Amino acid sequence: MGLPKVPLEDELENLYLSERDAAVEKVRACDLPSWELTAHQLCDLELLLNRTLSPLDGFLGLEDYTSVLSSMYLMSGDRWPVPVTLEVAGNFAQSLSQGDDIALLDSEGVVIATMEVSSIFKPNKSAEVDAVFGRQNEHRLAGGSPRDQVDDVCLGGRVKGVIPPTQLDRRNLRRSPMDEGFTVLFTGLSGAGKSTTADALAAELRETGGRSVTLLDGDVIRARLSSDLGFSKEDRDQNIRRVGYVAREITKKGGVAICALIAPYFAARRSVREMIEPIGGFVEVHVATPIDVCESRDPKGLYSKARAGVIRGFTGVDDPYEAPVNPECELTRRS
After folding, report:
1. Beta-bridge partner residues of 286
2. Is the model's pLDDT at 44 over the cut of 80?
3. Is 193:204 a contact under the CB 8 Å cutoff?
4. CATH number at residue 121
5. What residues does 186 pair with on adjacent strands?
6. Mind listing the pLDDT tens digit for each residue in 291-313?
7. Do residues 158 and 116 make contact, with C-beta atoms less than 8 angstroms apart?
8. Does residue 13 form part of some domain?
């Protein structure tokens, strides 16, 4: 068990049950054999459930365990460097058969997850030390020498999360894929194609489903949220901060905020990033369409008015656009 169900580059599967299914599973777990996890095992389980250890979806079975030790690959062909195993006492393992379900508890007896046992095997601790640390570093093995663990047995199987382990530190790093919302900020010149690209992304994410998607378009924001602001640098910065606050609230609740704004100034974009990154994901996309292409499109006639002096302070003409230095993504549109 522990084979990947989806490639790493694809959408991560959520191993936590829905709230309703978790409540049912918690009741069912009362009648299952249970294993109280060590602190190390609880950490491994948390990393499995929040998909840090993707593509693993559970503790390794014998075939994967042997393959990782011998070649650093899972049986699926995915590279994997270190065995992630659930070791239990021999007498507990003797009471189980393949296909049995067990409850995995923390030190206070709380059901963190359940696991369908698909593999029961004796670990080769000497081979683990040699493969992971090198023979000369046998003392590094958790729990002491391999000779001290002759009764241990490993259980392999897929896990189903009931409730995240209680942790008080680094909460923003402990979210599962479904917990963490994110913001995508499209920035670029007027006519670059920000709104068109943002619309396409929003439609794709809504079709995929799984979380709410909100599109924050610059023109709409100006009309409905920032109608009191002009186009001075101070007012533009204030407009970006307002959008950033809305995006932050959406992200904090696990949603997706897609922002399509000129956002010409580096400092204002950075302030939005700093607002959002502590509570979720942030992706800056520079739609780097050259200004001559933007002017050739000019659907609203704004560049013509700016060149004629009818509009003052127009980004790219007589007001600067500070291009992102290191965005997560850059799109170049030439037609």
Report:
1. 187, 330
2. yes
3. no
4. 3.10.400.10
5. 260, 285
6. 999 999 988 899 999 999 998 98
7. yes
8. no
